[in-house]
Design goal:
Layout (H helix, E strand, L loop, with lengths): L3 H6 L5 H9 L1 E5 L3 H12 L4 E5 L23 H12 L4 E5 L8 H4 L5 E4 L4 H13 L3 E5 L11 E5 L2 E5 L12 H20 L1
Parallel strand pairs: 1-2, 1-4, 2-3, 4-5, 5-7
Antiparallel strand pairs: 6-7
Length: 199
């Protein structure tokens, strides 16, 4: 069975790049606004394996910025997102873990993938994940500052195996998380992962 997605990507990537993308194993820690958008962008870019980690369910308040539809409300996020990813690319390998990332669960999750997208909500959870991943030698793309509308321009900072994206100032606890800036930050995360894979 042919893969229409990969056939289309052959116009933009060399066979070697397509092979690298297909072999890539990318972890997504958090399947909300950042994680759901970044996961679909990476799948559209030819990534062959995605691991999803989240313990939450889809709520109606998520629909303004997360890649879910009303039919997903009440469902586990990792299961709903896995369904969407496989609808887009049935050849994709998707692994799901419905659990909360803590100091106890993190060591068992990190070895699944060499590259991780940190897409968690709370600052303590974000710090725990990024610090643990970097200490373990993993590559991480993380976001900070994407609330509201307008605001400071988003950018990226390369810090060794860590890439930070966002405006680095706008707290979603103060400014509401809305689709345009959340999706912009997710796109920067996905782009950072592609650079890690292809450069």
């Amino acid at each position: 069975m042919t893969n229409p997605l990969h056939e289309g990507l052959g116009r933009y990537f060399s066979p070697e790049q397509l092979s690298a993308l297909h072999a890539a194993r990318i972890g997504i820690a958090g399947a909300g606004g950042l994680g759901s958008n970044a996961a679909l962008m990476l799948a559209r870019s030819g990534v062959g394996h995605i691991t999803l980690v989240d313990d939450d369910v889809v709520e109606s308040s998520n629909l303004n910025r997360q890649q879910y539809w009303p039919r997903h409300v009440g469902r586990c996020k990792v299961e709903a997102l896995s369904e969407l990813l496989l609808e887009l690319n049935p050849h994709l390998s998707v692994e799901t873990h419905r659990l909360r990332i803590t100091a106890d669960t993190l060591p068992g999750i990190l070895p699944a993938c060499p590259i991780w997208v940190e897409a968690l909500d709370g600052p303590d959870d974000k710090s725990l994940f990024v610090e643990g991943a970097l200490l373990g030698g993993y590559w991480v793309a993380s976001a900070s500052g994407m609330g509201g509308y307008g605001g400071a321009p988003m950018s990226r900072r390369n810090l060794g195996k860590l890439v930070l994206v966002g405006d680095f100032t706008t707290d979603i606890l103060v400014a509401p998380p809305l689709a345009p800036r959340v999706t912009e930050a997710a796109a920067l995360l996905a782009d950072a992962v592609l650079e890690m894979l292809l450069d």
